[in-house]
Each structure stands twice: as C-alpha cells, then as structure tokens.
Predict the structure.
Amino acid sequence: MFVSQTTIDNINDLIKRFFQHNRAWDNFLGFSNIEWALHNFNVVFHSGLAHLYPLLADVCSDMLLDFNVVPKYGTTEADFRTYEDIEDFFLINIEEHKATYEAICKARKEAIDNGDINIAMEIDRLLRMFNKFIAQAILLKDKAEVYGDNLWAFDAYAQQFYILEDVKEELDND
C-alpha cells in the first residue's frame, strides 16, 4: 500500500469536514436570505463559496483515488442553527475554518511522519487553496463589523467582498 491508514483516515476526515462546511453555509445562506433579505449576498456566496466546499472534498477524494484507495464519505451533522446577527455567523465560521485548518495541518504532518510524501505534497496544494477560504472568512467578518446594522449596503456590495475567483477557477478546472 502506498498510503498509510492514518493518512487515509485523515483525508477521509477532511472530506467530511468540507461537506460540513457546505452544509453550514447552505443553512446560513437560506437563513440570511429569509430573515434579513440578503438575496444578493445569497446569490454571490451560494455558488461562489458554498458550492466550492464539495470541490475541496473532491480534491481530497482524488488524493486517495490516485493511489487506488476508495474515499469514505462520512455523515455530516444536521445544521438548523439560527443567528442573532450576521457577525454571529461569521465568528462561528472563522472558528470552524480554524478547526479545519488545524485538521489539514495535522493531516500533512502525519502524512510526512508516515512517509506519505506523495499525499503531503497534495495537502500542500489543498492548504494553499484553503488559506484563501480563511481570508474570505476574515474579510466577511470584518465587512459585517463595518456595515453593522446596515444590511442593505452589506447585501448590495456583496460581490465586492468576494475574493475566491482564482480558487473557484482552479477548482472548476480540476
């Protein structure tokens, strides 16, 4: 076998995490569209962000498939969360991204420790892409703070807050 079981388990965990991010964003976008009428924000970030997380999961799946290992798609948690305001979601979102970042770093370290250099190199690429998702999460939190209760303006300028064009293109072409 070319890939250790520890690395396989870590990659499968990342697959699940990315689908969980997709679920969290789908829930938030639906909630914010109905509760705060953030329709434009929903349009921009549903296809521009929420739909990218399963593509990150596909990057992980491909890491395993390249070495004849069947990926395992774990069950994601239901997400029925509601939010007091948009900053509430964005703070939670940053914490969830931080946990995924730590899981990616752990997967990379353990892949190297187990001699799975081939997978570690692919994880480096994944981490470079995910860094942009973290930057997007931070920018959205900052914009939510700046706009405060002015949700109309936040919604109207949502496209200007979107910074994942390059990653979206890379994932769409992968």
Notes: The chain has a mean pLDDT of 97. The domain at 5-71+82-172 is CATH 1.20.1260.10 (Ferritin).
